[in-house]
Write a structure and sequence with these properties.
GO cellular component, one term (chain B): plasma membrane
Shape of chain A: flat
Strand content of chain B: 15-25%
Distance between the termini of chain A: 58 Å
Protein name (chain B): Quaternary amine transport ATP-binding protein
Pfam family, one (chain B): ABC_tran
Subcellular location (chain B): Cell inner membrane
Distance between the termini of chain B: 18 Å
CATH class of the largest domain in chain B: Alpha Beta
Number of domains of chain B: 2
Strand order of the largest sheet of chain B: 6-7-8-3-9-10
Strand content of chain A: under 5%
Oligomer: heterodimer
Helix content of chain A: over 70%
Main location (chain B): membrane
């Protein structure tokens, strides 16, 4: 046994007490702050569910066509969506999609500015990098429970947990993309008397867009990976079906809902990746170096 | 000659510019000032001396070439003129204004309006079309879209890239990309153009064509061009004046002929040995001035030695004429051979 050097019990008690204090005194304020998030999620979910299934299919197949200009991906997307419909998973899939989209949008809103800040200051990077590691490696239940205590079970803690888990790759890849822009191009831009923001928006962001898009792709994938956990605290959707399937030992229900998540992942992964490739080809980074 | 110039004729004036790379440059600077060499300073402090007390006067309307091998500090030198690199010590005056005292905002205005730059690695924006690249400097300056595209189109035409306006840089060859870089700098219509090994990445034939084009452009536009190269032949071909840089210090500065005919030291002599002297030396520097009987063949005084060589197969001397076509002197085979013969200390001096 490791010898007891100091008594850690007061520390634990302090942490628990302060959380309880926050829950007692500040939960209304927290909820008010998170309210826009809930609005966003509900809005997306309402729109997706209200839109007729054939329109959503047409839109996604159309986007797949725009991303690749070939017939393969649109066919894969069509078959995947038909699977969701036939298996009676359509509405759950829309709920899950709404959670994923809301989490991705919020993550983009926070991560890209943070990534930009990181790319410009070594000190910020030193502080943020371990924080991102923590967000990705800390088991999600550890922060899920306090968020549930503060917000109560429901969509907000589910969304927050998803964002915490899914945002780090976007921050990292934004930072990486901005820093790996060809220094010769940056110097040329500087020599023409550009302001820092002209360089950021005119050179750095356009040239790192393929990398940033790879980050968005990672974020969508990680958001989907969280849906089962999110459904445990009231997010609903495909994750809830999986959970029910496990609970009732109904393997088929779990399997089909699980496949539904896989199918969604395939759709969004392939579409975002194809857009990334298209961008990269357009910029032709490799050849101008 | 116009050796002594008024300050107002100077486009760029550098005084004692020193650059030391490292965490504590001041300490290394003191060591350097006590007379230690670049290698000694590096060994003692682990600081790299980029430039060592460089003073240059660059007159308006000149092509001034800074020549040196890699690591001589020539790229560092050119980046001081538009302050892409801050010097550790020294003074840089451009058009009478102290560049180092400019605020960030003044510096941006200065970069937009006074100095344009062409880069060895082109530095084109890969996500923009050729015409948008050429118009980039004007866009940064805030020129309205229609006007900047019109001006960009004109310069694209001048550098011979008409028809490529909507292409992406990566679709062009290296030579074409550098033309885009050149057009981008010229479109700004600044008095000063900085060219950092602008032609070094190009293959010899294209390079030669670009050099001719540059000299022609300079003649018609009268810009001050600070040109960096490691190629002595290139320097001789385009330069009005040359400064040779080694270990961050200027070894010799003068007209191309001066450097070829009177190399200041062993290092420059090594360059000179490899060079085609017949191309470097103008007839006017070695001609005998005065009244001579009219010669059957004459060349203008701006001709180079290689152009008179063929005449010597048949003749002892060739007449030299000035701009008006009047004969002002002659050049003899002996003089030419004397100038072209390998420089040997003690022999052939003066």
């Amino acid at each position: 046994m490791f010898p007891e050097i100091i008594d850690t019990r007061p520390w634990r008690r302090a942490i628990d007490d302060s959380l309880n204090w926050v829950v007692r005194n500040w939960s209304d304020e927290f909820e008010a702050v998170a309210y826009p998030l809930l609005m966003l999620l509900n809005f997306i979910e309402d729109v997706l569910i209200a839109t007729p299934w054939w329109l959503i299919m047409a839109l996604l197949v159309g986007i797949a066509w725009l991303a690749t200009r070939r017939w393969q991906l649109p066919v894969i997307v069509l078959v995947s969506l038909l699977f969701l419909g036939i298996m009676e998973l359509w509405e759950d899939a829309m709920t899950t999609m709404a959670l994923m989209i809301a989490a991705t949008i919020t993550a983009i809103l926070f991560s890209i500015p943070l990534g930009v800040w990181m790319s410009r200051s070594a000190r910020v990077r030193q502080v943020v990098t371990p924080l991102l590691d923590l967000m990705q490696t800390m088991p999600s239940f550890v922060y899920l429970i306090p968020t549930v205590m503060i917000f109560g079970p429901g969509k907000i803690p589910a969304l927050i947990a998803t964002i915490v888990y899914a945002a780090p790759p976007l921050v990292r890849l934004t930072d990486l993309g901005l820093r790996s822009v060809d220094p010769a191009v940056m110097e040329a831009s500087r020599a023409f008397g550009t302001t820092p923001s002209q360089r950021l928006f005119g050179v750095q962001i356009p040239l790192s867009l393929p990398t940033i898009l790879a980050g968005v792709n990672q974020t969508t994938m990680m958001a989907l990976a969280m849906v089962v956990i999110a459904s445990m605290i009231g997010a609903g959707g495909l994750g809830y079906q999986v959970l029910q399937g496990i609970g009732r030992l109904e393997v088929s229900r779990g399997l089909f809902a699980g496949l539904g998540i896989v199918v969604l992942a395939i759709i969004f992964d392939r579409i975002t990746q194809s857009f990334g490739k298209q961008l990269q080809a357009k910029i032709g980074l490799a050849e101008t170096r | 000659m116009n050796e002594i110039k008024q300050d107002t004729d100077l486009a760029i004036r550098m005084r004692g510019v020193t650059k030391i790379f490292g965490d504590d440059p001041q300490n290394a600077l003191e060591l350097l000032r006590t007379g230690k060499s670049k290698t000694e300073v590096q060994a003692e402090t682990n600081h790299v001396v980029g430039l060592d007390n460089v003073s240059l006067d660059i007159a308006r309307g000149q092509i001034f070439v800074v020549m040196g091998l890699s690591g001589s500090g020539k790229s560092t030198l050119i980046r001081h003129v538009n302050r892409l690199i801050e010097p550790t010590a020294g003074e840089i005056i451009v058009d009478g204004t102290d560049v180092l005292k400019m605020s960030l905002e003044e510096l941006r205005t200065y970069r937009r309006n006074t100095v344009a730059m062409v880069f060895q690695k082109f530095g084109l924006l890969p996500h923009r079309s050729v015409i948008d690249n050429v118009a980039y400097g004007l866009e940064v300056r805030g020129v309205p879209k229609a006007e900047r595209l019109e001006r960009a189109a004109k310069w694209i035409d001048t550098v011979g890239l008409s028809g490529y306006e909507q292409s992406r840089p990566r679709q062009l060859s290296g030579g074409q990309q550098q033309r885009v870089g050149l057009a981008r700098a010229l479109a700004l219509d600044t008095d000063i153009i900085l060219m950092d090994e602008a032609f070094s990445a190009l293959d010899p034939l294209i390079r030669s064509g670009m050099q001719d084009q540059l000299v022609e452009l300079q003649k018609s536009l009268g810009k001050t061009i600070l040109f960096i190269t490691h190629d002595f032949d290139e320097a001789l071909k385009i330069a009005d004046r040359i400064a040779v840089l080694k270990d961050g210090a200027v070894q010799q500065e003068g007209k191309p002929e001066d450097i070829v005919l009177k190399p200041a030291n062993e290092h420059i002599e090594e360059f000179v040995r490899e060079v085609n002297k017949a191309r470097a030396i103008h007839v006017r520097t070695i001609m005998e001035r005065g009244e001579f009987e009219a010669c059957e063949y004459t060349v203008p005084e701006t001709a180079r030695c290689e152009e008179v060589l063929p005449y010597f197969a048949e003749h002892q001397w060739v007449g030299v004429t000035n701009d008006e076509g009047t004969q002002i002197g002659r050049v003899t085979a002996k003089r030419v051979i004397g100038a072209l013969a390998r420089y040997t200390p003690g022999v052939n001096e003066g």
